[in-house]
């Protein structure tokens, strides 16, 4: 097709600023989807995504506008999926920046705009929700000008809901965003920017042809995976799939090549012609690196094989999480899983419970530590219970993040306080306008994976936003705290914490467990220990739990019911030494608070 008539774009927007509504409106106005058949929110297809209002799986869709073809490439809307965003931006020549005119620009949106600028993409900025009385487009346009240098008068004003200004936006896309360049007879290089597993077709990848031509039936070489596959089908989405014979330079579409595992067709992969392979892969490929880890255990030990199968199946669809079997004295057999971030962890867990009908216990999230031993070895551990004995440890490194917060200026104080209690070091404080402040901190990842995000939202009534990027590992004064029940350590409660926070963690765990562990026939000491030294202690006093005490003289069937229930309860007990602990106690104690 004629390259001059082609535009490849993504919409960059903060969650809730109206990306989905705008995509729907654009599909409708361009006649891509008949208004009558229009399924609301066409681009978001996974239920979970829709419920949480986030996009994880990327799709692209092709639409016609004024004699031009626009490929709208979706990007995931959460900070855990930053790498995926960078790959979909690599498939575009320009972006539409969409900002809610009542809210202003948010941290992650800003980070994505910087990413677009670094990649020399053209930005068409627009403000949304102009139909709302709360919209303050003049102030919002000034903010966009001051942080991104886009002149305020160039910022478009639209309502994705009513459609006002949307045709002008599409005109601006055609006029301002450059067409792709490339030659149809060059050596083929196509970028994969998303893959998902389809039960019937196997892996379906979204591709952008950068150079040359991708042909149906062609023998292909996947440069990063080092594998060869045949292109069984290639096509475009408009919005349903339509098979085509070729995809030329600058075009985007889908590729099906008989692949069974998304790990073999990852985002960032370069596809080339097996007969005439490109020498160099496209820039920017990265192996996914899990940042947050936790143990996942079935509540019912019999479900262990089901959990294994569910993980195998889910991984076909998401190659960025990892899992390996582990066992815990307290929780039995389960898996140690690694995720890109906290939300990713929640999504995987929720999908396991929902799609595979499993009931799971997850241990507290942990990060990967690099432990330098006195013997000069460096070991990487992602489970606190693997920590070498304190006496052998020379130093421990932990991962850090560069965190950017954008907030209404009223909340600056409370956010600085939050970051400081999380061991953050300030890099920057800047007023974007009299009402809005940008804060930058370097904070240990471990301090962010506990409830940082929730705190951020509750302290600012949801007005502050967050973006982060990895900032490498650094040495910190970390110690392992163990929790002992009746002198037996319980592995699931071991935690690596900063020395200044060890006492607090120990005390809180002991108090919590005292509430959760039922009385036994003997006194049960609960202790927290750090390097062999006890730092906190509680005792569960002995008492026989006599379930019949309340109903002497009562009728026999009631007594039997109570005894049955007690027996049922016993099945759910785990023994730690001589102490019987109900499964719920683990679940509650492991909950973050
Ligand atoms: P996304 O998270 O960026 O995909 O945002 P959505 O498209 O789901 O929109 C978030 C909310 O804002 C929804 O309740 C939309 O109905 C609403 N919304 C989106 N655009 C407009 C608009 O132009 N005007 C008004 N009043 N509401 C809008």
From TrEMBL:
Binding of GTP, residues: 16-21, 128-131
Cited InterPro entries: EF-4, EFG_III/V, EFG_V-like, EFTu-like_2, G_TR_CS, LepA_C_sf, LepA_CTD, LepA_IV
Main location as per UniProt: membrane
Entry keywords, A to Z: Cell membrane, Elongation factor, GTP-binding, Hydrolase, Membrane, Nucleotide-binding, Protein biosynthesis
Catalytic function, reaction form: GTP + H2O = GDP + phosphate + H(+)
GO cellular component assignments: plasma membrane
Pfam families linked to this entry: EFG_C, GTP_EFTU, GTP_EFTU_D2, LepA_C
Cell division listed as a keyword: no
Tr-type G domain ranges (all copies): 4-181
Subcellular location: Cell membrane
Stored CDD domains: EF4_II (cd03699), EF4_III (cd16260), LepA (cd01890), lepA_C (cd03709)
GO MF annotations in UniProt: GTP binding; GTPase activity; ribosome binding; translation elongation factor activity
Membrane topology of this protein: Peripheral membrane protein
GO BP terms: positive regulation of translation
EC number: 3.6.5.n1
Keyword Repeat annotated: no
Domain of life: Bacteria
Matches recorded under HAMAP family: LepA
Function field: Required for accurate and efficient protein synthesis under certain stress conditions. May act as a fidelity factor of the translation reaction, by catalyzing a one-codon backward translocation of tRNAs on improperly translocated ribosomes. Back-translocation proceeds from a post-translocation (POST) complex to a pre-translocation (PRE) complex, thus giving elongation factor G a second chance to translocate the tRNAs correctly. Binds to ribosomes in a GTP-dependent manner.
UniProt family annotation: Belongs to the TRAFAC class translation factor GTPase superfamily. Classic translation factor GTPase family. LepA subfamily. Belongs to the GTP-binding elongation factor family. LepA subfamily.
Protein name: Elongation factor 4
The organism's taxonomic lineage, starting at the top: Bacteria, Bacillati, Actinomycetota, Acidimicrobiia, Acidimicrobiales
Gene name, Swiss-Prot/TrEMBL: lepA
């Amino acid at each position: 097709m004629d390259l001059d008539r082609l535009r490849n774009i993504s919409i960059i927007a903060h969650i809730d600023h109206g990306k989905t509504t705008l995509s729907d409106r654009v599909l409708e106005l361009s006649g891509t989807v008949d208004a009558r058949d229009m399924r609301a929110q066409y681009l978001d297809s996974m239920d979970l995504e829709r419920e949480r209002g986030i996009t994880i799986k990327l799709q692209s869709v092709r639409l016609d506008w004024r004699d031009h073809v626009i490929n709208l490439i979706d990007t995931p809307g959460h900070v855990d999926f930053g790498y995926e965003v960078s790959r979909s931006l690599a498939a575009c020549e320009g972006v539409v920046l969409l900002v809610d005119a009542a809210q202003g620009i948010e941290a992650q949106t800003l980070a994505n705009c910087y990413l677009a600028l670094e990649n020399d993409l053209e930005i068409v900025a627009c403000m949304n929700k102009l139909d709302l009385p709360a919209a303050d487009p003049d102030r919002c346009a000034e903010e966009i000008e001051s942080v991104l240098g886009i002149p305020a008068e160039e910022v478009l004003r639209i309502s994705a809901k009513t459609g006002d200004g949307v045709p002008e936006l599409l005109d601006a896309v055609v006029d301002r965003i450059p067409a792709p360049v490339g030659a149809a007879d060059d050596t083929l290089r196509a970028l994969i920017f998303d893959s998902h597993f389809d039960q019937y077709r196997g892996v379906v990848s979204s591709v952008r042809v950068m150079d040359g031509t991708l042909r149906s039936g062609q023998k292909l070489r996947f440069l990063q995976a080092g594998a060869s596959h045949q292109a069984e089908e290639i096509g475009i989405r408009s919005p349903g799939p339509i098979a085509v014979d070729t995809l030329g330079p600058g075009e985007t579409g889908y590729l099906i090549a008989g692949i069974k595992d998304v790990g073999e067709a990852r985002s960032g992969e370069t596809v080339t012609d097996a007969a005439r392979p490109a020498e160099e892969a496209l820039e920017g490929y990265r192996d996914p690196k899990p940042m947050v880890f936790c143990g996942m255990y079935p509540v019912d030990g019999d479900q262990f094989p089901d959990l294994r199968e569910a993980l195998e199946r889910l991984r076909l669809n998401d190659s960025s999480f990892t899992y390996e079997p582990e066992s815990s004295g307290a929780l039995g057999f389960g898996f140690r899983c690694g995720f890109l971030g906290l939300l990713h962890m929640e999504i995987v867990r929720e999908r396991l419970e929902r799609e595979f009908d499993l009931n799971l216990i997850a241990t507290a999230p942990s990060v990967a530590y690099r432990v330098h031993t006195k013997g000069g070895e460096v070991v990487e551990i992602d489970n606190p219970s693997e920590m070498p004995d304190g006496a052998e440890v020379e130093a421990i490194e932990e991962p850090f993040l560069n965190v950017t917060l954008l907030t209404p200026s009223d909340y600056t104080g409370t956010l600085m306080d939050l970051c400081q209690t999380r061991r953050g070091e300030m890099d920057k404080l800047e007023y974007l306008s009299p009402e809005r402040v940008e804060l930058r901190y370097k904070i240990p990842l471990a301090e962010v994976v506990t409830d940082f995000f929730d705190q951020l939202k509750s302290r600012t009534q949801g007005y502050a936003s967050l973006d982060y990027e990895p900032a490498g590992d650094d040495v910190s004064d970390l110690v392992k705290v163990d929790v002992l029940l009746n002198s037996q350590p319980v592995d699931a409660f071991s935690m690596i914490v900063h020395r200044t926070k060890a006492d607090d963690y120990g005390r809180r765990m002991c108090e919590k467990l005292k509430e959760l562990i039922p009385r036994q026939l003997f006194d049960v000491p609960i202790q927290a220990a750090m390097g062999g030294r006890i730092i906190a202690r509680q005792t569960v006093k002995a008492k026989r739990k006599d379930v019949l005490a309340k109903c002497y003289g009562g009728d026999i069937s009631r007594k039997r019911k109570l005894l049955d229930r007690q027996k049922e309860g016993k099945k759910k007990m785990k023994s730690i030494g001589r102490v019987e602990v109900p499964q719920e106690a683990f679940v509650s104690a492991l909950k973050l608070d």
